[in-house]
Amino acid sequence: EVQLMESGGGLVQPGGSLRLSCAASGFTFDNYGMTWVRQAPGKGLEWVSAITENSGNSFYAESVKGRFTISKDNVRRKVFLQMDNLKPEDTAVYYCNVAVQYWGQGTQVTVSS
């Protein structure tokens, strides 16, 4: 059974940083790229970032480029999202995703003074 579990969310002031983690199990982690998606209050899903299976390539939405960094640890079976210079518009529930159909439960990020 594929399981994804996000952690690391919280309340942070504008300009602050958070590091999200997603622990994966139930599939061959090395063989899959991973994705972060977010959903702001009252809005639809927004793709944030993705990384290829061997971390050779990473991709970012324009809204987070230069502020967020995705990384993947195939030994620990985790994917991370380092979020710096956070803005109020980054407030959302953040989900990790694999193979389109598998999602974690999400972790809340709130950016507010």
Task: Please describe what this structure looks like.
The chain is 0% helix and 51% strand. The mean pLDDT is 96. The chain has strands spanning 3-7, 10-12, 18-25, 34-39, 45-51, 58-60, 68-73, 78-83, 92-98, 102-103, 107-111. By secondary structure, the chain is mainly beta. It has no helices and eleven strands. The protein is globular, with a radius of gyration of 13 Å. Strands 2, 4, 5, 6, 9, 10 and 11 form a seven-stranded mixed sheet that branches. It has a four-stranded antiparallel sheet with strand order 1-3-8-7, with no helix packed on it. Strand 5 and strand 6 form a beta hairpin.
Instruction: Tell me the strand percentage band.
Output: over 45%
Structural class: mainly beta
Overall shape: it is: globular
Total number of helices: 0
The sequence of SSEs as H and E is: EEEEEEEEEEE
Largest beta-sheet details: 7 strands, mixed
Could you report the average pLDDT, rounded to the nearest whole number?
A: 96
What's the oligomerization state?
single chain
Helix content: under 10%
Low-confidence stretches: none
Radius of gyration: 13 Å
Report the end-to-end length measured between terminal Cα atoms. Answer: 40 Å
- Tally of extended strands? 11
